Amino acid sequence: MVGGKGEHVRVAVIGAGFGGLGAAVRLRREGVTDFVVLERADGVGGTWRDNTYPGCACDVPSHLYSFSFAPNPDWPRAFSGQSHIRAYLERVADTFGLRPHLRFGAEVRSMRWDADELRWEIDTAAGPLTADVVVSATGPLSDPKIPDVPGLGTFPGKVFHSSRWDHGYDLRGKRVAMIGTGASAAQIVPAVQPDVERLTLFQRTPPWVLPRFDRRITAAERWLHTHVPATRAARRGLLWGVRELQVGLFTKRPNQLGLVESLAKAHLRRAVKDPALRARLTPDYRIGCKRVLLSNDYYPALARPNVDVVASGLAEVRGSTLVAADGTETEADAIVFGTGFHVTDMPIADRVTGADGITLAESWKDGMKALRGTSAAGFPNFLTLIGPNTGLGNSSLILIVEAQLNYLADYLRQLDTLGGRAALDARPSAVNAWARMIRTRMERTVWNSGGCDSWYLDEHGHNTTLWPGTTAEFRKVTRRVDLAEYRLLRMPRRAPGAPVAAGAGR
């Protein structure tokens, strides 16, 4: 480690988004105060700090997309915008006294497990440190993915990803190309369409879109949620319950999703009268196979005279001319990529070297897998929040985070009970058994059988992203740490002055 090992903490948390802040709150509640939260940026918020594009909002209802231990009775809308969610996370950091633990500008450059000392050596942009336990909360939607398009470097105009929006560049009166049709594009398109000269949407695959039942939450409702907390809890419970009941359709009975498809097609017919355009916007796969979008203004925006929908992906750039895979050519002044993130190949994995001297990325070369979505074999005392197969297709990811926080808390309790210098390393047999169970259950889900190619799947075609069950089930399987699924590592006994044996503690 360059510059020495620096300070030592019991727990180092990577990332200050929902996962990292949630971990920090839980640590303090468990009486653990010897921890830091390492954040590469200059503020909290994670994806809700980075994504500031026009129209940015959450597609999960506000009262469900928040911590159960930090309810917010003052959400202004049923579906909150980016600024309100980031403000909520800032309040969480203040309310729970997290500021002293935050280390901004401390991007993790590399981490290595020290088998002799049973701790992690961490090199950050703010200096080195060591930690007994590391909690990775970098999140799957943190590092943008821009495709390697031939000739992109020759484009004379402005190019940026939706999660790195350039607010210094004025799109008004410009010819803008939107690449991708995911959740970000569905919000950006209607937000910028009225101001641009021409908007061209490059669409490889049309998404299924359902109405977004958004509205302003009245002052009376907010007063009631503040002064009668049971009403707030009931609202959250209802939102949760409805989504739990939907899970079976996605995971066990995808053939029964036809009624939902009919609703989506009716939504499309109401907004788009041109049959040719409607045909280009109609998916040919089962609804739910890719992420279902919620929007009331996406289709109307695409039907406007200054919008073109190219039913093909961007294949090449020749100066200011964009060429689609079907040969369509478009002139543009700006390119906005709404092409997603490194989800199944998380960049943090390249920076973590485990007990066997290989990186997490190398360990996951055939696909990500972690015991209960949290612990990877060969990486002792390293826990991932929102890890492999913990994502959701229809509910709030905060419910998954809180379940994993229960697991984290019990993990630390187990280490305390074991006493001394100890570490837990997930057994490969336990990790593999968990992965086989996930893969077997995934076969019948709409995500694997719905006839689409989505960002849920890795390069091998494996769904390493989503959880094939309810959030209640996930909470149950992460309630306690089963020590039988782990190898216990202890500090080797040493004679006074004796050198440490190679591989000790392994």
UniProtKB/TrEMBL annotation:
UniProt keyword terms in alphabetical order: FAD, Flavoprotein, Monooxygenase, NADP, Oxidoreductase
UniProt GO molecular function: flavin adenine dinucleotide binding; N,N-dimethylaniline monooxygenase activity; NADP binding
Family from the record: Belongs to the FAD-binding monooxygenase family.
Pfam families for this protein: FMO-like
Organism: Streptomyces netropsis (Streptoverticillium netropsis)
Key word NAD present: no
Protein name, as recorded: Cation diffusion facilitator CzcD-associated flavoprotein CzcO
Keyword Oxidoreductase attached: yes
Cofactor(s), names only, from the UniProt record: FAD
InterPro entries noted in UniProt: FAD-bind_Monooxygenase_sf, FAD/NAD-bd_sf, Flavin_mOase-like
